């Protein structure tokens, strides 16, 4: 699955000259052919990202920016968590970004530049009831950001995590997001574009000295 935040990031990036690609898990033909922002290429990708990713990287060629955003969230009491849901979250939220970076970061490093953004969550640094497994995947993703910074930033590739709080990603769930918003310092949820603007800054030359950071876009939730 992917969120509305993902669909907002590409149009924000059209202000730059980057080639824009979105790697998504193929679902139904209708979803695959849905209206897309101009200039955005969409490539289906297995959620595990371990099979076929090298072939995909060869087809795509050189890229400047990779945003690891597509993922899955299942909230459930620990004793009720299904093994299949647990495995799916780690496949989509940890394994997929790992193998995408393995495929694309070496070519970025070879040319001496590139930016990778991992979309995390406030759940990666907070204890949230029924969110232990999901939070663990996002904490793991932030750890990968730090590890990749040590591995690649000396060769010009920057890695950062953007960690949103509650975001209005589904109109039908606005009441839920309003409830979550009350837990933030600002007492409101974010609009997807507010997260996308932070991503746009981090991949730009203005953030050329920013790497290894986790940027909270959570209305102060993790500060209180």
Write a concise keyword list for the protein shown above.
alpha/beta, single chain, Rossmann fold, 224 residues, globular, 6 strands
Description:
This protein has 224 residues and is of the alpha/beta class. It has helices spanning 4-13, 29-32, 53-60, 83-111, 132-152, 174-181, 192-203; strands spanning 20-24, 40-44, 65-68, 114-119, 157-164, 214-217. The protein has a 4-stranded parallel β-sheet with strand order 3-4-5-6, sandwiched between helices. A two-stranded parallel sheet has the order 1-2. Helix 4 runs parallel beside helix 5 (132-152). It is globular, with a radius of gyration of 17 Å. Residues 28-34 have low confidence and may be disordered.
Give a short synopsis of this structure.
This protein is of the alpha/beta class and 224 residues long. The chain has helices at residues 4-13, 29-32, 53-60, 83-111, 132-152, 174-181, 192-203, and strands at 20-24, 40-44, 65-68, 114-119, 157-164, 214-217. α1 packs across α7 (192-203) and α4 (83-111) packs parallel to α5.
Low-confidence stretches: 28-34
Q: Percent range for helical residues?
A: 40-55%
Gross CATH architecture: 3-Layer(aba) Sandwich
Annotated CATH homologous superfamily: NAD(P)-binding Rossmann-like Domain
In round numbers, the mean pLDDT is: 86
What is the fold-level CATH name, i.e. the topology? Rossmann fold
CATH class categorisation: Alpha Beta
Number of helices: 7
Shape: globular
Number of domains: 1
Count every beta strand, where a strand is a DSSP E run of 2 or more residues.
6
Global structural class: alpha/beta
* N→C terminal distance: 30 Å
């Amino acid at each position: 699955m992917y969120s509305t935040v993902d669909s907002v990031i590409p149009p924000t990036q059209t202000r730059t000259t980057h080639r824009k690609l979105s790697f998504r898990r193929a679902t139904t033909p209708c979803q695959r052919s849905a209206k897309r922002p101009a200039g955005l290429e969409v490539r289906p990708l297995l959620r595990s990202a371990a099979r076929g990713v090298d072939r995909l990287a060869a087809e795509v060629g050189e890229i400047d920016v990779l945003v690891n955003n597509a993922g899955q969230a299942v909230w459930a009491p620990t004793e009720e968590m299904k093994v299949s849901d647990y495995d799916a979250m780690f496949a989509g939220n940890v394994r997929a970004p790992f193998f995408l970076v393995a495929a694309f970061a070496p070519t970025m490093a070879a040319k001496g530049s590139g930016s990778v953004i991992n979309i995390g969550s406030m759940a990666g640094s907070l204890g949230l009831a029924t969110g232990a497994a999901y939070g663990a995947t996002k904490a793991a993703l932030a750890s990968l950001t730090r590890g990749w910074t040590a591995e690649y930033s000396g060769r010009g590739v920057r890695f950062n995590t953007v960690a949103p709080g509650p975001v209005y990603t589904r109109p039908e769930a606005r009441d839920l997001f309003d409830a979550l918003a009350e837990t933030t310092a600002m007492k409101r949820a974010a609009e997807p574009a507010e997260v996308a603007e932070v991503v746009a800054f981090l991949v730009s030359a203005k953030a050329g000295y920013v790497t290894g950071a986790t940027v909270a876009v959570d209305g102060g939730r993790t500060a209180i």
